[in-house]
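User: quick one, sequence for these tokens?
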């Protein structure tokens, strides 16, 4: 669950206890404990899924080998829907706002804003939107949201989430679904079929609860170590591999009638910095952009990707005045004109600091993005009411050409029709909710993810201390309250790494620590028990951005008097500090319990690490 720091503080006080007390539906199981009976899969509309091509995984991945259950597009019907809408309703189709759940309904404040601003899209997050434990509550909440849309505009909503994979998910085991291994872990397998199956599973599960659009996958290529925003969100630093994995991921979403969105165009990963908090400027030449960043996007578009999210960073080779998110040179001239993309263009959050790059104080990022050629505006950080008023004024005065605006509105309606939103406008209803057990949280999906996780873990060093079976083990790891020292985002996990180890190996003595001040607790824990232990396992998360975690590693390596096994939960750069000093170093490249379980099995000799290290870990 991803949260801004202010949300984190509130949840830590008000709701963390419910997460820590095991409120997720069911209990976590080792793959061997999962029942072998398979529940029949169903597609997004409740029918039997088309079988995969025969012996598919023996063949190279081909997105054209699958059938995608799109609905036919009727241009006359699109014209009729457009023409009956008021100007305010048409403006609303271009707006996406975040909504909050109260019980099984839309929170009254969110509902009031929906009725005032008439949005054509909404976004949801875990806990505040996607319910812990019971996906049926989420389905009823989103049914209520669609019912409001039917009343205020007669047009169904795009419902979105950040289902990027791994820790960056709204639907996972804690919310009644299945843990995915995450993009960087997928990259470590170098396998398009792993990418497809992971995103096909995520597509089926988010669709089951009522999410029909996704802010992902990331098609960025992660070259720059100092880019703290990307973490394990990308497939890695190999642009050619990212191109293949990105096509497979998009195909997995499309197969479930979930409109996947390639982001962050023209591509993050070459520059340090974080666009949430600062201006980021990429000075690469156009040739360098084409070679190092754009290939995954171009391939995704050719394979049928229907949406793209623009990045609030400047790319001087394309526009030396503005960020891509508000740049007509990037969106209309380059993306639509030169590349030929005819799908939906969606902005990143317009409240991010980078969205203001090149704008004057009196210019609205939302209005400027719309003028640049964007179709849907993410208004999370902008006052949506003010944005509506300014767009209305620009239409009245000709600042936004009516013909361009109408074409964009119809494009939104066209993709809502293509993804079958009009066929069942208030999906999911109670009949759909009744089918959830056959579509979400399936035992075979848990087994699949567990296998993929083992294939993704990378063992960077082992001087003979492993396997740990028969040894007296101390384990210290980041807590379930997991702040990211690089990005400023935070998560609440279902279990910590040491919590998983203690569950699977009851003799282990375990202690969690809170990143950013709690590391001394871990040091004291080891000091007090080192006389009764044979080995120390220490897990870190983004310690390459955390002086406190670096100090913890140094303290254990220098003074514990025991062999140290280092487990890097996030991107593997943490291993730069320990690769030549620790007795063993393992890169999980993911921070959900599915990766923790794989790591524990590997440490105790019950499984083999099968991942490839794609990042350069030389100093």
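Assistant:
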């Amino acid at each position: 669950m991803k949260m801004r720091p202010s949300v984190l503080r509130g949840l830590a006080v008000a709701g963390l206890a419910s997460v820590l007390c095991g409120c997720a539906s069911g209990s976590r199981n080792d793959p061997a404990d999962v029942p072998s009976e398979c529940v029949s899969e169903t597609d997004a509309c409740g029918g039997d899924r088309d079988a995969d091509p025969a012996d598919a995984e023996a063949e190279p991945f081909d997105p054209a080998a699958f059938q995608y259950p799109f609905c036919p597009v009727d241009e006359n019907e699109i014209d009729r829907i457009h023409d009956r809408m008021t100007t305010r309703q048409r403006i609303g189709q271009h707006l996406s706002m975040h909504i909050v759940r109260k019980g099984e309904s839309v929170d009254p404040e969110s509902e009031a804003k929906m009725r005032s601003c008439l949005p054509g899209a909404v976004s949801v997050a875990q806990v505040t939107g996607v319910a812990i434990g019971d996906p049926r509550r989420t389905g009823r909440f989103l049914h209520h949201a669609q019912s409001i849309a039917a009343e205020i505009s007669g047009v169904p909503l795009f419902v979105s989430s950040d289902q990027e994979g791994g820790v960056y998910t709204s639907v996972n085991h804690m919310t009644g679904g299945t843990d995915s291994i995450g993009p960087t872990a997928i990259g470590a397998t170098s396998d398009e079929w792993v990418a497809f199956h992971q995103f096909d599973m995520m597509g089926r599960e988010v669709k089951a609860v009522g999410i029909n659009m996704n802010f992902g996958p990331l098609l960025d290529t992660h070259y720059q170590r100092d880019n703290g925003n990307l973490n394990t969100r990308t497939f890695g630093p190999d642009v050619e591999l990212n191109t293949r994995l990105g096509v497979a991921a998009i195909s997995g979403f499309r197969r479930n009638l979930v409109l996947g969105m390639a982001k962050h165009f023209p591509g993050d990963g070459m520059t340090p910095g974080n666009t949430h908090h600062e201006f980021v400027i990429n000075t690469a030449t156009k040739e360098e952009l084409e070679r190092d960043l754009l290939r995954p996007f171009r391939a995704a578009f050719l394979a049928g990707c229907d949406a793209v999210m623009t990045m609030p960073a400047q790319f001087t080779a394309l526009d030396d005045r503005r960020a891509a998110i508000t740049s007509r040179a990037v969106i209309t001239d380059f993306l639509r004109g030169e590349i030929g993309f005819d799908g939906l263009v969606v902005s990143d959050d317009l409240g991010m600091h980078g969205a203001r790059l090149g704008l004057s104080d009196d210019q609205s990022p939302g209005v400027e993005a719309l003028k640049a050629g964007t179709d849907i505006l993410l208004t999370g950080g902008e006052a949506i009411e003010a944005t509506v008023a300014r767009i209305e004024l620009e239409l009245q005065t000709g600042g936004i050409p009516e013909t361009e605006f109408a074409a964009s509105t119809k494009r939104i309606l066209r993709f809502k029709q293509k993804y079958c939103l009009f066929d069942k406008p208030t999906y999911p209803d109670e009949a759909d909710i009744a089918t959830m057990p056959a579509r979400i949280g399936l035992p075979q999906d848990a087994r699949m993810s567990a296998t993929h996780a083992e294939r993704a873990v990378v063992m960077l060093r082992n001087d003979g201390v492993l396997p740990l079976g028969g040894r007296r083990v101390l384990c210290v790891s980041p807590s379930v309250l997991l702040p990211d020292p690089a990005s400023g985002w935070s998560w609440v996990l279902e279990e910590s790494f040491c919590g998983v180890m203690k569950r699977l190996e009851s003799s282990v003595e375990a202690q969690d620590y809170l990143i950013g001040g709690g590391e001394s607790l871990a040091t004291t824990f080891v000091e007090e028990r080192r006389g009764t232990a044979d080995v120390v396992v220490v897990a870190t998360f983004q310690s390459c951005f955390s002086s406190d975690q670096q100090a913890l590693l140094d303290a254990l390596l220098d003074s514990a008097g025991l062999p140290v096994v280092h487990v890097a939960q996030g991107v593997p750069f943490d291993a730069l500090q320990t690769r030549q000093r620790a007795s063993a170093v393992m890169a999980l490249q993911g921070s959900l319990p599915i990766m923790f379980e794989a790591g524990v099995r590997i440490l105790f000799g019950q499984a083999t690490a099968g991942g490839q290290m794609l990042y350069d870990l030389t100093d």
